[in-house]
Amino acid sequence: MKVALVITTHSSEKIRPHGRDLLLNAISSFKKYCHFDYEIVVVDNQSDNSLASFSDTGLSNLMMSGCHYIYIEDQWKKGLTGAWNTGIKKAYELSCDVILNSNDDLIFNESINDFIRKISDNIDSDISIFGPLTNGVNGSFEKIQKSDMPDRRKSKEITGDGWEGFVSGFFFGFTKKFYEKFKYPDGDLFAEFDKFDKAYIHKYAGDCGKWGGQEMEILRFKESGGKVFVIGECWIYHLKKRDWNTARKIAGEYGWHLSERFEEVIK
Questions:
Q1: In CATH, 2-266 is 3.90.550.10
Q2: Quick check: 158 and 228 in contact, CB under 8 A?
Q3: In contact, 129 and 122? CB cutoff 8 Å
Q4: Are 24 and 63 in contact (CB under 8 A)?
Q5: Can you name the residues that pair with 173 across neighbouring β-strands?
Q6: Residue 130: enclosing H or E segment and its boundaries?
Q7: Out of 35-39, 64-68, 156-160, 194-198, least confident range
Q8: Dist. CA 43–CA 89, nearest whole Å
Q9: Beta-carbon contacts of residue 70 (< 8 Å; ≥ 6 apart)
Q10: Do the Cβ atoms of 226 and 166 come closer than 8 Å?
Q11: Which of 155, 133, 187, 173 lies closest to 36 in space, CA to CA?
């Protein structure tokens, strides 16, 4: 079984000055603890300079040792969502059996192996999306995923609706067969507004778009027969550097260059 870790990252003085260090910590900890055959896909969402060129942070060595590096020339076209989709497509092209879509502000530990095993062993793995426990969630996610350590008692299927019905978008896991079942015709797994019909936008648009965590898309998966699970045996430390919110504000609410575009879509 081959695993893909897909990390979207950004480093710039204006939005994310600490991006290189975060990425280094995430990749280093994953390489240290993951026991499975893996590929790492780094999607650089228009950093000031190509992250692969920064030898002073140790990133260039990491990029040269098994990481697939993709640079997005203009992050404003498709935002965070577009970067996610780019990385997921690459992982699928690499024939990875399990795909982990990840923030760059995470630090992994030994329990990441339990997360991967639980996905592989789940009888419904090909129609399910999975999340871990973490310190770094708030709001409705607290009672679903909040913890200071792994806790198998918190492993469960999430069957609620709305914000009670999905896991946080900081880290998702799913199989390649899940991707094949739920992807859009163009290969994207997570949508921007331009893929939604009007009814869908009114129903789910709360935190989707170019800069959202895409949790609302999980409701689409569930309505098509999908399932959602929390894997309590896995706990991931989340630094919660939510700088994508800065990008979201710069781009305008809902990630459009012009707010009129959004108004036009939902009329």
A1: yes
A2: yes
A3: no
A4: no
A5: 100, 130
A6: strand 128-134
A7: 194-198
A8: 11
A9: 41, 42, 43, 44, 86, 87, 90
A10: no
A11: 173
Q: How far apart are CA 219 and CA 244, in angstroms?
A: 22
C-alpha to C-alpha distance for 103 and 240, rounded to whole angstroms: 9
Q: What values do phi and psi take at 68, rounded to 5? A: -95, 125
For the chain, the C-alpha Rg in angstroms (whole number) is 17
Q: Each residue of 5-36: pLDDT tens digit?
A: 999 887 777 767 777 788 888 998 999 999 99
- Is 237 within 8 Å of 109 (Cβ atoms)? yes
- 3 state SS of 51: helix
- What is the distance of C-alpha 10 from the center of its chain? 14
**Class of residue 50 by CB neighbours under 10 A (exposed 0-12, middle 13-18, buried 19+):** middle
Contact 28, 112 (CB under 8 A): no
Q: Tell me the pLDDT band of 99, cut-offs 50, 70 and 90.
A: very high
pLDDT tens digits, residue range 110-163? 999 999 999 999 999 999 999 999 987 776 777 789 999 999 999 999 987 766
Do 238 and 135 meet the contact criterion of CB atoms below 8 Å apart?
yes
**Between the CA atoms of 157, 29, 102 and 83, what dihedral angle is there, to the nearest 10 degrees?**
-170
Rounded CA-CA distance 266/224 in Å is 23
| Residue 168 contacts residue 134 (beta carbons within 8 Å) | yes
